[in-house]
Amino acid sequence: MTKTVAITGATGNIGRKLRKHFEGLGWQLRLLDLGDGGDPKVLASDLRKWDERWVSQLAGVDAVILLAGDPSPAASWRSIVELNIDLTLNVYEAAARGKAKRVIFASSNWTMAGHRFAGGELPTTRDPYPVNAYGTSKLVGERLGRSYSERWGLSAICFRIGWCQRGDNKPGPHMDWADWGQAMWLSDRDMCQGFEKAVAAPESVKFAVLNLMSANKGSRWDLEATRKVIGYAPQDSHVPDVTAEKRTGADRTREVRQRIEEAEAWLNATRL
Questions:
Q1: Domain count, the chain
Q2: How far is Cα 255 from Cα 261, in angstroms, rounded to an integer?
Q3: CA gap 176, 202 in Å, rounded
Q4: Do 247 and 182 share a domain, yes or no?
Q5: Shared-domain flag, residues 45 and 159
Q6: CA atoms of 126 and 114, how far apart (whole Å)
Q7: Which among 93, 94, 91, 33 is positioned nearest to 59, based on CA atoms?
Q8: Does residue 68 sit in the same domain as residue 84?
Q9: pLDDT tens for the chain, residues 1 to 272
Q10: What is the Cα–Cα distance from 196 to 96, expressed in whole angstroms?
Q11: Whether residue 19 sits in one domain with residue 124
Q12: Are 154 and 257 in a shared domain?
């Protein structure tokens, strides 16, 4: 069945891949990004600023895919507030006012980064643990999705996306963060499948936070809810291959994380 989908951040890594996939399905697309990249099909839009010119593009669509924002885990709070919080709120608001059926929000594995060295499975029901401004902003985006779903009836599916690299997106020892990074690999094929199924999910899906990774060996990220809610069936998998150098880097990061947590525990214990 033909769908009408608005993609914000349409000229970015994931946006370009989804566009190609959806065009292959014959879906109708409304493409928005900060710059059009010379493509007349892309509407250049600063989504931080409310403007009926771009707001109208979200009206009545089957889904708004919210990819726009600062994608850097090292982004400053100033950038995050403008591009990942103000912008996200605007898109949710425009989708709700325009009676879009659903928003599919690109959340991130960074919402759970603090659990990297803690062990255990990572279902989306586990307490979030962002360690930077980027991860915090993605958690805010999820909570906005819940709020708009409960108060305005806007369906919201939030994907905690793994690592979908630019270019050919091949997994391997070149990836950072040792086995943690490789276990989060998300193939282009699986990524496109996940978003396609989210667009087509039944109206009964009012709100969901779901992990979106490939079926990687030893991965702690729980995909069972993603399978149950939208019928996701990953086709690709990877066995992590970690070099000694990456392993050493991970050990150093673990030590730093432990010191930070010890300092936080001390501050909590001594707080007046």
A1: 2
A2: 10
A3: 37
A4: no
A5: yes
A6: 12
A7: 94
A8: yes
A9: 899 999 999 999 999 999 999 999 999 999 999 999 899 999 999 999 999 999 999 999 999 999 999 999 999 999 999 999 999 999 999 999 999 999 999 999 999 999 999 989 999 999 999 999 999 999 999 999 999 999 999 999 999 999 999 999 999 999 999 999 999 999 999 999 999 999 999 999 999 999 999 999 999 999 999 999 999 999 999 999 999 998 889 889 888 888 888 888 888 888 75
A10: 21
A11: yes
A12: no
Provide the CA 10 distance to its chain's centre, in angstroms. Answer: 14
Give the pair of three-digit tokens for residue 11: 């000229």
- Residue 227, Cβ density class (10 Å: 0-12 exposed, 13-18 middle, ≥19 buried): middle
Among 55, 8, 6, smallest CA distance to 33 is for 8
φ/ψ of residue 193, rounded to 5? -60, -45
- The b-or-e profile of 171-198 (16+ CB within 10 A means b, else e) is beeebebbbbbbbbbbbbebbbbbbbbb
Domain, as residue range, for 255:
243-272
Same domain, 261 and 199: no
C-alpha to C-alpha distance for 194 and 180, rounded to whole angstroms: 21
Q: How many CB atoms lie within 10 A of CB 248?
A: 11
Asked if residue 53 and residue 13 are part of one domain, the reply reads yes
Domain CATH number, residue 228: 3.40.50.720
Tokens of 123: 């279902």
